[in-house]
Amino acid sequence: MSNYWKKLVVKPGSKIRLKHFDPGYHGKHESHKSALPEIQENLQKMQELQYKMYAENNHSLLIVLQGLDAAGKDGTVRHVFSGMNPEGCICANFKQPTKEELAHDFLWRVHPHMPAKGSVVIFNRSHYEDVLVARVHGLVPEKLWSKRYDEINDFEQLIARQNNTSILKFFLHISKDEQLARFKKRLDDPTRQWKNSESDYKERAYWNDYTQVFEDVLTKTSTDYAPWFIIPSNHKWFRDLAVSQIIVQQMEEMDMQLPKPTVNLAEIRRQYHQAAGPEKSHRHKKR
Q1: φ and ψ at 67, to 5 degrees?
Q2: Distance from C-alpha of 5 to C-alpha of 66, rounded to nearest angstrom
C-alpha cells in the first residue's frame, strides 16, 4: 500500500511551488474501480475509529479542507465522511464574515467550532480564508494579514496542546482546465445547476494570485502539530483515497481504547438477566 502521508505532506519549513505538484497524479491505481476496495476499507476503519474516539472521550480531530472553487470540498465531506456517526461528527462552513464577526479578531468566529473531546469537526473552508480571499482582494492591509500566519500557528498549537486535538489540513489541488470542466458539468446537470455562480467564473481571473497565496499558506503554516497535505484532486476517487488513508493513519496513531465498564457486569447479569428467565416463565403461566 502506498504511503500517501509521506508522499503528500508538506514538511515544515519547506518552500512550496504548486507547479511542481501534479494535480492529475493518481498513484498506482488507474481507475475508481481499482481504488474502490481500498477506499471502502479506509471508510470502514474510520467508522470504527470514530466509535472508539467518541467512547473514549479523550481525543478529538479537526479536518481542514481548502481549495479553489470546484476543487471538491463538498464532495470530500460527502464521500469520505459519510460513514461517521453524526452524533460525533460536525461540519462547519465559514463564508463571508458577518458584521458581528468583523467587529472581533479574525479567529473569534472559529474558536467556538473547534472539536470537543470525543468528536470530529470538518472545516469546509476555514480560518485560512483570512489569508486567502482577504489577501487576494485586499480586504485587509498587509500589516494585518502578514501577521496572521504566526497567529494561526499559535492558535492551532493551543488547540492541539490544550484539548488533545489532532489537526489535519488538506489542500485539494486541481488544474485550471479541470476547474472549468467541472463548472461546465454543473451547467449541464440539473441537480447541480443551483451551484452555479457568476462570481466563480470571475474569480478565475485571479488564478495566479490564489496560487501565490496558497503557496504562502502551505509554506508558512504547515507544522508538526498541524500539517498540510497537497492532495492531487483532478481524479475525485484518488482524492477520496488519499484523504481517507491519511485520516486513518492519524486516528490509528492515537491508540484509542474503549473505556472499561464502570459497573460490575457479573452482578448486572446475575441480578437482572438470570432472574429474567423464571420471571418470563411465570408470566407465560399466568396467561
Answers
A1: 170, 165
A2: 17
CATH number of the domain to which 221 belongs: 3.40.50.300
Block residue for cell numbers 497567529: 151
Instruction: For residue 123, give the H/E element and its range.
Output: strand 120-124
Q: DSSP class of residue 26?
A: -
- How many whole angstroms separate alpha carbon 142 and alpha carbon 147? 8
The total domain count for the chain is 1
Print the domain residue range for 135: 4-286
Under a CB-based contact definition with an 8 Å cutoff, are residues 18 and 233 in contact?
no
Q: Are 124 and 91 in contact (CB under 8 A)?
A: yes
Task: Supply the pTM of this predicted model.
Answer: 0.93
**Which residues, 6 or more positions from 189, have their beta carbon under 8 angstroms from its beta carbon?**
none
Per-residue pLDDT of the chain (287 residues; tens, 9 = 90+): 689 999 999 999 999 999 999 999 999 999 999 999 999 999 999 999 999 999 999 999 999 999 999 999 999 999 999 889 998 999 999 988 999 999 999 999 999 999 999 999 999 999 999 999 999 999 999 999 999 999 999 999 999 999 999 999 999 999 999 999 999 999 999 999 998 889 999 999 999 999 999 999 999 999 999 999 999 999 999 999 999 999 999 999 999 999 999 999 999 999 999 866 655 555 555 55
The C-alpha cell of 9 is what? Answer: 505532506
Q: Which secondary-structure segment (H or E) carries 229?
A: strand 228-232
